[in-house]
Amino acid sequence: GNSVTQMEGPVTLSEEAFLTINCTYTATGYPSLFWYVQYPGEGLQLLLKATKADDKGSNKGFEATYRKETTSFHLEKGSVQVSDSAVYFCALGFNFGNEKLTFGTGTRLTIIP
Amino acid sequence: EAGVAQSPRYKIIEKRQSVAFWCNPISGHATLYWYQQILGQGPKLLIQFQNNGVVDDSQLPKDRFSAERLKGVDSTLKIQPAKLEDSAVYLCASSLRLAGYYEQYFGPGTRLTVT
């Protein structure tokens, strides 16, 4: 079946540090890959996506590249801010037929000033 | 554009009681999803509707959970009777397909505590 494995948290970084959150997946077929973010007290929001191999998704300074050869979709940001503190979820889904998302367990990120 | 609405936001019940959650998707979104998010885990799909038909309910515990989407708009998710392990956040999402691509929009969730 399909599954997503995420870097265990929590992760604590200082402001302006470099961020990497690892994500690998197992899937039958060619999924789309997503990063969702959940800020304190809010619902899940789509942060970025990539729909095919070698695509790079980017938003708000975050980037992730769809690597088919390593089945990975690692999230990166060059300089984190306190406002980036949230829980980050990696997910996969398919565009046709059953479109449910399969999520990783989430990584809690805390940025300290 | 209004987002996905859910109510209530919080609910505390005793085990063996029943509870219902309501979701109003974004206007025009044909697909609606209910996810269960247990503390420390990622969301898990319970049921997916396309208009008012069920697409996938393979992970819905049908002996106690039920869901409906009358008229292809609002949806309700019911648990009867509740168990301690049902304590979780219940997320509703909706999506619209545009040229083969879709994006799911999530509501704020209902946090259920079963005591």
Key attributes of the depicted protein:
heterodimer, A: 113 residues, mainly beta, 4-stranded antiparallel beta sheet, 50% strand, globular, B: 115 residues, 7-stranded mixed beta sheet, 11 strands, 0% helix
Task: Explain what you see.
The complex is a heterodimer of chains A (113) and B (115). Chain A contains no helices and twelve strands. Chain A has strands spanning 3-6, 11-14, 19-21, 23-26, 32-38, 44-50, 56-59, 62-65, 75-77, 86-93, 102-103, 107-112. In chain A, strand 5 (32-38) and strand 6 (44-50) form a beta hairpin. In chain A, strands 2, 5, 6, 10, 11 and 12 form a six-stranded mixed beta sheet that branches. In chain A, strands 3-9-8-7 form a four-stranded antiparallel beta sheet, with no helix packed on it. In chain A, strands 1-4 form a two-stranded antiparallel ribbon. With 115 residues, chain B is mainly beta. In chain B, 0% of the residues lie in helices and 54% in strands. Chain B is built from no helices and eleven strands. In chain B, strands 2, 4, 5, 6, 9, 10 and 11 form a seven-stranded mixed beta sheet that branches. Chain B has a four-stranded antiparallel beta sheet with strand order 1-3-8-7, with no helix packed on it. In chain B, strand 7 and strand 8 (75-79) form a beta hairpin. Chain B is globular and about 40 Å long. The relative contact order of chain B is 0.33. The chains are: A mainly beta (113), B mainly beta (115).
